[in-house]
Backbone:
C-alpha cells in the first residue's frame, strides 16, 4: 500500500495551517505589550501582528486584557 501523495500534501498543509493560524493565550499575552504599542503608533496591527490580532478577535479574555492595557497607556499619554 502506498500513500497517495496529494492526500499527504493536503494533510501536511492542514496541520501546518492550523499551527500557523493559531496562537494560545500565553503566546498572545507575551505579544500583547508589543501589540498595544503598535496599535498606539497607528500601525495596521492585522498586518504587522496577524496572529495576535486574530487571537484577539476570537478570545474575549485576551481582548479585555488588550483593551485595559490600551486604555492604561492612552491615559499615560494624555496626562503627560
Ligand atoms: Zn486568549
Residues:
Amino acid at each position: 500500500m502506498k500513500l497517495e501523495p496529494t492526500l499527504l500534501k493536503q494533510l501536511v498543509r492542514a496541520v501546518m495551517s492550523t499551527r500557523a493560524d493559531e496562537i494560545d493565550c500565553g503566546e498572545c499575552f507575551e505579544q500583547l505589550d508589543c501589540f498595544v504599542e503598535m496599535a498606539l503608533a497607528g500601525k495596521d496591527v492585522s498586518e504587522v501582528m496577524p496572529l495576535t490580532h486574530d487571537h484577539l478577535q476570537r478570545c474575549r479574555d485576551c481582548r479585555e486584557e488588550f483593551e485595559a492595557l490600551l486604555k492604561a497607556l492612552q491615559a499615560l499619554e494624555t496626562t503627560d
